[in-house]
Design brief:
The structure holds 2 protein chains of 2 kinds.
Chain A (H helix, E strand, L loop, with lengths): L2 H6 L6 H39 L3 E2 L9
Chain B lengths: L15 E2 L7 H5 L24 H10 L2 H14 L16 H14 L4 E6 L15 E8 L2 H4 L5 H27 L4 E4 L7 H7 L4 E2 L5 E2 L7 E8 L13 H5 L4 H5 L10 E3 L2 E3 L4 H10 L5 H5 L5 H16 L8
Antiparallel strand pairs in B: 2-3, 3-7, 4-7, 5-6, 8-9
Helix pairs in contact in B: 3-6, 4-6
The chains are: A mainly alpha, B alpha+beta.
C-alpha cells in the first residue's frame, strides 16, 4: 500500500510520466464512482431497509470496496 | 392521532454496526498514554497502511450523497498536482519574516481567509511520514454559513467538502507559486499524510477547543484547513493565546449538545500530552450517519467569526485585570 501521495503525486517528472499518472488516477476515480453506483446503491438501500426495520446492517466485510 | 415530534439533531441510533468490534479508536489514538509518540492513521487514512476501522470508512464512502462524492473526486483529481517541478533559480528574501509576509499575501489572493506560518514538528505528522520540509504555511477557509445552518445533515456535509475544496485549491496554488520561486513545496489539502490541527496551532491560526477542533479569533470554529510544506525559510507565527482555555474550562455547550456524548468535560492525556479529546468510538459512527456532523462547531460560542474576535478580546481583558484585593 503506497498511499495517495506516493501513488499519484509526482515531483520532477516528464510529461509521459505525468500522463501515465493522470491515466491511473482517472481510472482509480472512475472505479470508485462505479463502486459507489453499484455496491453503494445496494448498501444505501440495505441501510434504509435496516433503518425502517430498526436493525443494524453488519459492515465487517467491507474492505477496500469488497463486500 | 399521536404524532412524534421531529428529533433534531438525529439520535445516535445506527442502521449499521460491526459484528465483531475493531480495536478501540481511543486506544489507537493513545488515550490515557502518558508517554509521547506520533499519531497513527485511523480513519480517512492516506492508504499508507490498512486501517482497523477501514470497514466503516468504506461504508461511509459508499453511502455519501452523489454531490459529496463528486466534490471528493474533484479534490482528489486536483491533489495530483500537490507537488511538481521546482524552478532552477531561487528567489531569496531579505529575512524569513519577509518571506512569510509575502507567502501570506499571496495565499490570501488565492482564496485563503486566514494564513499562518509555523514549524513542522513531529506531532504534526503520522508515524508513517518522514519530515523533509521543515516549514509550513497553513490556510483556513470558512464554511458558507448557509450550508452549516442545518448541521448535521447532507447540506452541511456538502458545505464542509466545498470548504475543503476551496482551502485545498488555495494550498495547491500557493505550493505552485513557491515552487516557481525555486523552493520545494507540497500542498496537503484534504489529505491524511499530515495532521492539520497541530500544524495550524504551530502556525498561530488558533487554539484547540474542547470539541477537539481549532478555534480562530478571525473566523471562529466553522472552517477547514489546508497546508503547504516547504523548505522556503519562513518566520514562525507560533502558538497563540486567544483565551480559548478560559472559556472552554467552564463552558459546557458542546459537551452537553453533542448527540453521541463524545466530548469530555475534562482534559485527558493523549500520547503524552494533556489536552481536550473527543471520544473516537462515539464520535465517528455519528459522523458517518450524518455525512460529517460538525454539530459541536455550530453550537460553539466561538462559532461566528465576528463574535470570536469580540469574545477573545473580552476574555483576554478579563484575564489582564488585577485580582480584587482580599476583604478585611
Amino acid at each position: 500500500m503506497a498511499g495517495f501521495e506516493k501513488e499519484y503525486v509526482l515531483g520532477e517528472a516528464s510529461w509521459r510520466q505525468r500522463l501515465a499518472r493522470d491515466w491511473r488516477l482517472a481510472t482509480h476515480l472512475l472505479r470508485v464512482f462505479w463502486m459507489w453506483a453499484t455496491v453503494g446503491r445496494k448498501l444505501r438501500r440495505a441501510t434504509e431497509e435496516a433503518e425502517r426495520e430498526g436493525r443494524a446492517l453488519t459492515i465487517d466485510r467491507l474492505r477496500r470496496g469488497r463486500v | 392521532m399521536s404524532t412524534s415530534a421531529p428529533s433534531w439533531p438525529p439520535p445516535p441510533v445506527y442502521a449499521f454496526a460491526y459484528g465483531s468490534a475493531p480495536p478501540s479508536g481511543n486506544a489507537i489514538n493513545g488515550l490515557g498514554e502518558t508517554k509521547w509518540r506520533r499519531a497513527r492513521e485511523l480513519f480517512h487514512g492516506s492508504g499508507a497502511r490498512p486501517l482497523e476501522w477501514e470497514a466503516l470508512q468504506s461504508y461511509f464512502g459508499m453511502i455519501v450523497p452523489l454531490r459529496l462524492l463528486l466534490l471528493w473526486m474533484s479534490i482528489r483529481w486536483a491533489a495530483r498536482n500537490s507537488n511538481g517541478t521546482v524552478a532552477k533559480r531561487k528567489r531569496v528574501f531579505a529575512s524569513p519574516a519577509d518571506a512569510a509576509a509575502h507567502v501570506k499575501d499571496v495565499a490570501r489572493l488565492f482564496g485563503a481567509e486566514q494564513v499562518g506560518t509555523g514549524a513542522v514538528t513531529e506531532d504534526c505528522v503520522y508515524d508513517s511520514f518522514t519530515i523533509t520540509l521543515p516549514h509550513a504555511a497553513v490556510v483556513a477557509v470558512a464554511h458558507d454559513p448557509r450550508d452549516m445552518r442545518s448541521s448535521p445533515d447532507r447540506a452541511s456535509g456538502i458545505g464542509t467538502m466545498r470548504a475543503y475544496k476551496k482551502a485545498g485549491r488555495a494550498a495547491l496554488k500557493l505550493a505552485k507559486y513557491i515552487r516557481k520561486m525555486g523552493w520545494r513545496a507540497i500542498a496537503y489539502g484534504q489529505s491524511a499524510e499530515v495532521l492539520h490541527i497541530p500544524l495550524a496551532i504551530n502556525a498561530g491560526i488558533g487554539e484547540l477547543g474542547k470539541h477537539g477542533s481549532l478555534i480562530s479569533k478571525e473566523i471562529g470554529t466553522s472552517f477547514r484547513l489546508a497546508a503547504v510544506l516547504t523548505d522556503l525559510p519562513l518566520a514562525h507565527d507560533g502558538p497563540v493565546d486567544i483565551g480559548v482555555e478560559d472559556l472552554c474550562a467552564t463552558c459546557l455547550r458542546c459537551a452537553t449538545d453533542c448527540p453521541p456524548g463524545a466530548i469530555a468535560n475534562e482534559k485527558q492525556f493523549v500520547r503524552g500530552v494533556e489536552k481536550w479529546y473527543v471520544d473516537f468510538d462515539k464520535c465517528v459512527p455519528y459522523f458517518v450517519k450524518t455525512y460529517g456532523c460538525g454539530y459541536c462547531l455550530e453550537v460553539c460560542p466561538w462559532a461566528d467569526g465576528g463574535r470570536a474576535s469580540w469574545l477573545s478580546e473580552r476574555l483576554l481583558a478579563k484575564r489582564a485585570q488585577p485580582a480584587p484585593a482580599p476583604a478585611r
